[in-house]
Each structure stands twice: as C-alpha cells, then as structure tokens.
Amino acid sequence: MRRTRMIVFITVLLLTTVLCGCTQKTEEKDLKISVVCTNFPQYDWVRQILGDKVNNIRLTLLLNNRIDLHNYQPSVDDMIKISVCDLFIYIGGGSDGWVDDVLKQAENKKMVVIKLLDTLGDAVKTAETIEGMEDEDDEDHDGDHEHESGLDEHVWLSLRNAQVFCAVIADALSALDKGHAEVYQSNAGVYIDQLSALDLKYRAALTAPSAGPESGKTLLFGDRFPFRYLTDDYGLNYYAAFAGCSAETEASFETIIFLVEKMNELGLKNVMVTESSDKKIAETIVRESKGGNHPILVLDAMQSVNKNDISNGATYLSIMESNLSVLKEALE
Questions:
Q1: By Cβ atoms counted within 10 A, which residue in 270, 285, 318, 332 is the most buried?
Q2: Dihedral angle at the C-alpha atoms of 191, 50, 53, 43, nearest 10 degrees?
Q3: Torsion angle, CA of 270/274/279/284, rounded to 10 degrees?
Q4: Residue 93 in contact with residue 39, Cβ under 8 Å?
C-alpha cells in the first residue's frame, strides 16, 4: 500500500498544479453536468437511467482499456475529470484506495459522491478464503491492493444490488438536473423492472429442483473468484484457486491437486474462469482430472469491458444474460 500511496501523492501534487491553469477554461467551455464512473456497470446504469438525455450529460468511464479494477491507477487526466465532476461513482473497496486523496483535492466542493459499499450498508459481504483456496494472508505482495477493510468489493455482480444502486443513482441525477428528474425516475423504474425480471430468471434456472443434488449446484474456478454476491443470491456453492481480489496468477501444487480431487469427487463436468484468465490453471485442472476433456467455461465479471465492447453493444444486462446461459451450462 505504501508504493500505491506514494504514486497517488505525487500525482495529486501534479494535479493541483494543472488544475490551477485548466479548470476555469474547462468549466467555461462545457456547462454540461459531468458524471465520472470508475467501472463499466456504473457507467451503463447511468446510461440506462439517462436514456435519450444521455447527450445532455458529460459521462466518463475511467476503466475502459481492459485494465481491471485491481490494477488501475488514475492518470493526471483522470484525476482532473474527477476533481471537477458533479457526480462521482466508485466502489470504495481496497482497490479504490487512491480515491480519498483525490477527493481531498477536488476542485468541485459541491460534488455528489456515491460510494457503492456505503450504499449497500449491512448487505456488504466480507472477503472470504474457502477450503482449498490460496491464502495470501501471510505473504507480502508489496501491499499494492491490500484489502484493509476485508470487504468483498465485487458488489455489481448481484442483480439485486444493481437495483439498489440504480435507485440511488437516479435520485442523484434527478437532484443535479431537476428539469429532467421525472424522465430519470421513469427510466430508472423501467430499468429496475428489467433487472428484477432477470433476477427472477436466474432464480428459476439456478434454484429449481431440476438443478440436481448438491454437486449439481457447485462451480469450480481455476481462477480468482469475484462472484460471491452472485452465488450467494442463488444458493450456489463454489471452489476456486484464488479469492476475488487476489494478485496471484500461479497456483500451488496443493491448490491444483485439491481442485482436481474436488472435481473428481463431485463429478463436475467443467472448469470455470473469468474473462481475463489465461486459462493455464484451468487447463491443468482439466488435464489432471478424470476424463481429461472437460470444457472451460467463461463467466464475465465485467472487470475489463472496453470502449470497443461498448461500441459493439455491450450492456450490463446483456452480459448478465450471457452469464446466466453459462451458469445453466455449468450446472447441467
């Protein structure tokens, strides 16, 4: 954490110098309400709530070049965008440790800030290390993404959480742009209904008796596991090589053997990974398991959606729809 804080400190010093010369010019040229989001789900929720008023707002997505949440550090340009924005939305977990220093230097003292972990309150889950998973507690990883709070920050991967967040975002946009408040609330209501409908589809598909015995409701990840909010929503079990925020890419022999044995014991038919995986661990598990020819399925954690994906029509709902198809295949 010390190295990260030093980088942020130096960048904040640069930020304060740059802001003196450019903030006034920027505000004079662009009087639009400015919204800055750290990750793709937040960005897409705002788009859906804005609807056909999206061009009335200056909307920025910071993580849009396949740099995921755990590896991102803001540039000076990113910090300037945050400093002068009207609404800033971020998660608030260990990977966002840089945010506090940036907000202290913010030029816009009336900025509305939505911290998703605070919005969830008691519904936030703690990060967990389960049986067979690599445990990083006793290792020194230079502290780049120490999760001092012990909270699981992957809150966007629950459709139920998404409904809560969208209501709060709609209220913030309505307060900032009162002339279109009715439109934003109406759009949010329609979109929340869509999220609720997809949640019902998940429940019907993943919690039905046809899902089979306990082994038929278990996922096995040869990768890190950011999906705890999703699996908890539908009563699914899981085993994985790493926790969701792990910086590790190589699993120990013991972890590999545990996952192979668990796959064989439960008769699982596939191994799963996230969209950013190189699949090496999963391929090893498949190779060493009985049969040795199981498919590797990809569940999208939306941590590396980029501007090309967005241009090609990617939305939060479309990705969650695809994830449901993957989960149904995994649990057949």
A1: 285
A2: -120
A3: -40
A4: no
